[in-house]
Specification:
Elements: H1 6-42, H2 45-52, H3 66-89, H4 95-135, H5 139-163, H6 167-173, H7 178-188, H8 193-262
């Protein structure tokens, strides 16, 4: 098993981002931050409240076309992420070449997502079916079994998301198809689950804190200049910009961890 060093990946990522910032940040802002910001502005307040505190029995109506907007946003962010990985993994590649490579490999990434979603839906469907079977014997037993299976399914999804964290670099750095990419990404993270889990948790916490602070500070300034609406827009833009900067560092670090994992 290869050694995976978070510290080494961080040092390499800082040096690389400092050197290639003029290539990385425009791609991140255009294809990662901007689509997310536009979708956020399109999201009705009731949906934003539900996303913050989801309730199965109180799902608000989704506006016409909003589902399509979400899908387009996700695909654009995937496209931008693949381009960023191309820039991080292939020294000397131009932005245009990275975008063309990302476009060529995007169908494979979409295919892997469909396979994973299919497996997840199947797992939850089996859990529900087992719950229905047990409900024929006892409602209390069915509730307990359903809760246990639901928690187990969530745990499996969480575990798989960590094990597949190197999927994007695998897709962009090879010519493998859908299933081969999934198998390769899974194999590369074998024995590194806890290290990758800790890394992603730290990045998530850091991103949340820094983006929230930036949103509040810039929002206050925007509020002084343009009132409540100006505060909201300015805060959203600041939060999206800071999040995209942190994401660039995270993606470059994942690219370095991928290189460590494939090193012989």
């Amino acid at each position: 098993m290869t050694t995976m060093s978070i510290g080494k990946a961080w040092e390499e990522a800082v040096a690389f981002v400092a050197r290639e910032a003029s290539l990385l940040f425009p791609v991140a802002l255009l294809f990662v931050a901007l689509p997310g910001l536009i979708l956020q502005e399109m999201t009705p307040p009731e949906l934003q409240a539900w996303f913050a505190q989801p309730k199965v029995d109180a799902i608000p109506a989704m506006p016409p076309g909003f589902g399509l907007a979400m899908l387009i946003t996700i695909i654009l962010i995937w496209f931008g992420s693949l381009a960023l990985f191309a820039l991080a993994l292939r020294p000397g590649i131009s932005v245009g070449e990275a975008l063309r490579l990302s476009f060529a490999r995007l169908p494979v990434l979409i295919g892997t997502a469909l396979v994973v979603v299919g497996i997840i839906v199947g797992a939850f469907a089996i859990a529900m079916l087992v719950g229905v079977i047990f409900s024929l014997a006892s409602k209390q037993l069915a509730a307990a079994v359903g809760l246990l299976l639901g928690a187990g399914a969530v745990g499996v999804v969480f575990y798989a998301s960590i094990r597949l964290v190197l999927l994007n670099p695998v897709v962009i750095d090879s010519q493998a198809g859908v299933m081969d990419s999934l198998r390769r990404a899974w194999a590369l993270t074998r024995g590194h689950f806890l290290r990758l889990f800790a890394f992603l948790i730290i990045v998530m916490i850091l991103s949340t804190i820094v983006a929230s602070v930036a949103q509040v500070v810039v929002g206050l300034i925007g509020g002084l200049i343009a009132g409540p609406e100006g505060a909201r827009v300015a805060g959203s833009i600041a939060g999206a910009a800071v999040s995209s900067i942190i994401q660039v560092y995270m993606l470059v670090m994942l690219a370095r961890l991928y290189r460590q994992a494939v090193a012989v």
